[in-house]
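Give me the fold.
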Amino acid sequence: MFRKILSCQRTFSTSGISYQSLLNARIENDKFVVLENSQEKLKFPGIWLRDNCQCGSCFDKNTQSRKIDWENFPKDVKIDSIESNSNNLNIKWSDDHKSSFDYDWLKKRDFSKTSQNTYLSKYYRPKYKSWNKEGFEKIRSSYFDYNDIIHNDEALKDWLESLAVYGVTFIKNNPKDKNVARKLIDRIGFIRQTTYGEEYIVKARPDATNQAYLSNKLQMHSDLPYYEYTPGVNLLHYLVQTKTNGGSNLLVDGFYVADLMRREHPEHYKLLTETVVDWNDIASENGVPFHNIYRAPVICLDMEGNCRRVNFSTPQRDTHFNVDVNIVPDWYDALRKFIEIVYKEAVHFKNNEGDVLCFNNIRLLHGRTGYDDTDTNVRYVIGAFIDWDIIYSKLRVLKNAKYN
């Protein structure tokens, strides 16, 4: 089969300095297209190029989505010939289809590890930084201003990026307004509704169906572990703070605890990552009954073995434990070690009246010391959730992450 292969002279620009570079295009092993010069080599699978053809019949530029019907995709399609000019790589396929690719577009999609890592670190999700007791005070002192977040996109971006990296942020100078949490979430996207409503009020009440609505000590926990799609971020606005010594916050980085267990207590860590636990919530809110169940380990890992979620709430751990009976005693030993580290590493602080505490609900565990609740001494906190998908989307938009 005849294949036409041409090279081209292109002008590249780096830091404002232009230079000439001879770019050669060739077919390799009938399966790849290679573009190279003295400085770099880009290699693209032919099937990927055909799948990502940018012509009008294959790709819809308005919706930025592929139109190719893979049910009827031509079988064993091959590269017939390639041709390059000053701006594009042109390909003729064995089924007579033609594709044209802009070199800058190809460069952004280079398959090299360096290029892929650069793209993912910049546009996928900020890489988190775990912290312990010693590192918390620096995070707490780097607070954000409500008015800056509401009126300035750069401040909004900085806040969301810090929340993604450290898992916790503090917002000061909030108005005495019951809608503060909602207004902050509206700046990002939209609120996440749960069985407890859109916004929820954390205050002591005699008819409480959840332990958060008591003035007792609140054990360390993550919210709603009985949801498969657990809300990612919790915003708590301390509209009224108790004047007593109680009502203080406890907070710990669950990813730090998990990593410490992995290094120092590997057998316990293995049990907590592999043993599926039943989490449940059976109650009613505003007269509406619900029965939530989700099954997942205390420490959930992603495909690369990194911690992606921590599930922990003693009140919400079901009495049904659907595992091999023989591993239960060892699992309790592992859980005891986990709880020991959680409380050892937990930071204690008390938010001022008006403050907003934001934290990653699938990473951090939080709790509260007990307090006296009277007619003249109340604690009134307004909470709301938002999902990480919405936050990451907004963050990419703020970073101008349209990656065409």
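Residues 1-22 have pLDDT under 50 and may be disordered.
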